[in-house]
Amino acid sequence: MTGAPRADDARDVGAARSPFEPAGVVFTPVSHGLVTARVITLLASAALPLAGSVVLGFLVGGWAWAAPAVVLAVLAWLLWLIPRQVRALGYAEAADDLLVRRGILFRSLTVVPYGRMQFVDVNAGPLDRRCGVAQVRLHTAAAQTDATIPGLPPEEAARLRDRLTARGEARLAGL
Q1: Bridge partners, 92 (sequence order)
Q2: Entry pTM
Q3: Distance, CA of 98 to CA of 91 (rounded, Å)
Q4: Fewer beta carbons under 10 A from the terminal one: N or C of the chain?
Q5: What are residue 33's phi and psi, to 5 degrees?
Q6: How many alpha carbons fall within 13 Å on the CB side of residue 55?
Q7: 3-state secondary structure (DSSP) of residue 147
Q8: d(Cα 167, Cα 97) in Å, to the nearest integer?
């Protein structure tokens, strides 16, 4: 029977057109420990501007008290934004590629073919280790396609590093 497309068909077509949600790909989220690490970094970074604006308010008075209010408003907005940014991060291991997505307003999907990877780094600073997260960075011949996956538990970062290295070597052997 032919006729007008059903509503279900329109949803399927709309979902298939999104370049950030490839069909059949399930993204793995990063660890919630990344939120803690980013919040601690934000609070440490905001301490000096907040203290300076309060001192300015005491010294000048009047409208100068708007400065701490602005710093606190920006701080509150960033504290609201960080968990959402972390929830937007994810990665997926496809048959031939690693897909990394990020972003809420400005979304990004990076596809790195396994055969193009040159090496894989795992990094974790002192705060990252304290929060139980690590970062996996993939390097390719083209600098534009390097990909970073922050906020992975250390065991998952090591597993992903080993798996990506093995897949990369297998793809290179086939060339």
Answers
A1: 99
A2: 0.80
A3: 7
A4: N
A5: -60, -25
A6: 6
A7: strand
A8: 9
